[in-house]
Specification:
The protein has helices at residues 16-30, 33-43, 51-58, 62-74, 113-124, 128-150, 159-172, 198-201, 206-220, and strands at residues 78-83, 93-98, 177-182, 185-190, 227-230, 239-242. By secondary structure, it is α+β, with helices and mostly antiparallel strands. The protein has 2 domains: 16-98, Arc Repressor Mutant, subunit A; 113-242, Muramoyl-pentapeptide Carboxypeptidase, domain 2 (2-Layer Sandwich). The protein starts with 15 loop residues before the first helix and ends with a strand.
């Protein structure tokens, strides 16, 4: 079944990095045939669907269906709602719905250097420590909002699953991120920065995405202390956040 939508990549000056980020974001969300089926199925269900219902309709195990649903939710294509079955005191069930009834799967890639530069200059007017705190605080608030869209209610997933969901969400926002490692050695590696060269000129912008990671992890898992251990503004080829 083919996805009946058009992917558009538009930019006044599309660079190789922009294009790679666009391809990564699209393939992460819809590169799998079953995941495309799952998305189209949920999109046509006005009341949304549970993982069990999707599994039965697609013919896969419930864990497989749940994996695809979580990937789509992490990318912002589906939203999750919690509900408790009538007369039941068990664990709340999850229902997945299309993020928008009129969703057009289109990826618009744009250069954010200007906005990033203006934001960086605005933060530069503050004392360095205050600018870092403000930028990270804004990122944390936005990260928590993203986590609420992915996983409403109490955090209940493993740290490894939460880190993978954060990487998916960052990719959908232009960071081309992926999770690496396992157990006590987890990292989020971002191969593209939507702030572009502005982050090199104003490294304080890195506090924004560090805050986003911290906010998302707090909402999806609980207390965590992610640290940006390497970044492009510091001369690295990728930005690495260690959890």
């Amino acid at each position: 079944m083919a996805v009946g939508r058009i992917y558009r990549v538009t930019s006044t000056a599309l660079t190789a990095d922009d294009f790679e980020s666009a391809v990564t974001s699209i393939t992460s969300a819809f590169g799998d045939h079953t995941r495309r089926q799952v998305y189209l199925l949920v999109r046509e269900a006005p009341e949304g669907m549970t993982a069990a219902e999707v599994a039965k309709a697609v013919g896969v195990h419930a864990n497989v269906a749940r994996h695809h649903l979580e990937k789509l939710a992490g990318g912002g294509y589906l939203r999750v709602e919690l509900g408790r079955p009538a007369g039941s005191a068990g664990r709340p069930s999850k229902r997945y719905r299309a993020a928008s009834e009129d969703l057009d799967i289109a990826l618009v890639v744009r250069r954010d250097d200007l906005l990033g530069t203006l934001l960086g200059r605005a933060l530069a007017r503050l004392p360095a420590a205050e600018a870092q705190e403000l930028a990270e605080g804004v990122g944390i608030e936005y990260g928590r909002a993203l986590a609420d869209a992915i996983e409403p209610g109490q955090a209940n997933r493993s740290l490894q699953a939460a880190v993978a969901a954060v990487a998916d969400a960052l990719t959908s926002h232009g960071f081309a991120a992926h999770a690496e490692g396992s157990a006590n050695d987890l990292r989020i590696v971002s191969e593209h920065c939507p702030f572009g060269n502005a982050a090199v000129e104003h490294p304080v912008l890195c506090a924004l995405d560090r805050g986003m990671v911290k906010g998302m992890l707090a909402g999806l898992y609980g207390d965590a202390d992610p640290r940006l251990s390497g970044s492009v503004p510091m001369g690295d080829t990728v930005c690495t956040t260690t959890v």
